[in-house]
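Researcher: I'd like a structural prediction for the single chain below. Treat it as a standalone chain; there are no partners to consider.
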Amino acid sequence: MELSINKAKFTPKVFILVALILLATGMLFGIIGGLQYILPGFLKEALSFEKTRPLHVSSVLFWILFASMGAVLTYLKEHIGNKLYSNYLSRLLFFLFVVSIFSILIAYFLGKFGGREYWEFPPILSLPIIIGWIIFLINFVFSLGSLKKQPVYIWMWLTGIIFFLFTFLESYLWLFPYFNNQVVNDMNIQWKSYGSMVGSWNMLIYGASMYLMTKISNDKSYAYSTKAFVLYFAGLFNLMFNWGHHIYTLPTQPYVQYISYAVSMTELLILGNIIYGWKATLTKAQKFFHRDAYRFLVAADVWIFLNLMLAICMSVPAINLYTHGTHITVAHAMGTTIGINTMLLLAVCYDILKDTCISLAPYQKMMRFGFWLANSSLLAFWIALIGAGILKVKWQMNSEQIAFSLMMQNLSPFFLVFTISGVLLLVGILLSIYPLFKNHLACFFSEK
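Model: Treating it as a single chain, here is the predicted structure.
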């Protein structure tokens, strides 16, 4: 039989497919960056570290954004029980973001920069992102219709969409001389916008996770509970004020640091408590029916605990003074981005793409092995970064002024461990998502 592309209506699942490609791509660039740590000069001419790092960071950030958009649009359709306000706007949003990320990656390959951390590409390439996100907001609001008596995940998504747009625009204030000419204020705004931006996409991810937990338990009352709304307001407060821990070393008002220290960990603490409590309410049948998504939710809960312990230490100003800018900060970022956000999003991906055109049952062994390989490798990766960070702290505080090159040589065993574990992490992720790719392509290419 002849295969042909199914020209049925565009669905938000395409966002998820592109997101998974970006996840694998981002991790591949991360491995190349790791190899450049232990093999100086590796691919220096074709792909130097100054290119590898933004290629890795931007790919991973767009994995989070694409997956979050796909999750919100898919679950919103399920929630309202009918079509989105405009399928055309969804396609336009997809097109703008695909064009944007493709242009950004090409710019990095060509060595064309001009932005700042997270968004190191030429600022003009941010315009499709801004326009696309406004379209995302319009489609969400008009599809929803009313905010009356809505569950907590709707408020999380709405807040996340609005605040991402606000903080993304705020992160480009440095383009104006009024802000760019004042160094301290410029750095304050830069780190404030980045810290709040992370909180905004956390809102999207946590809202999708809350919807998924409601779906698995088949109990909507949880999404209307006081506990769920406590998480929402803790996350909102965290989004607005936790960025202060980024600027402990800047001459700012002390109350900013005190507030940020007080709220830094509330979001993770409450989220971990909610997932832990929710797991206890499920029956064996519910866990089995959603076993793949459930597995990643449990992993995220474990990583919340591990990262919470590290983050609490880092949020103490006296400790942050030493750890800031070391590999301990990177360990915290990786624990959050991969251990928490990626595990939660993979749970969502499994729910959205599972068993729609082919059965995933023959792939269960592969997926379980990939799951355990990914998480055990991530743990080794995380510990190696913390170890490297501790040695760098000792070097920074050492009165003997050891040469930087010698310090980096001493860190090489840790770099070797996190590079090897990074390779194994990529293999584990690929084994976990391969069945989802095969399933989605089976849906996309349907038999006549």
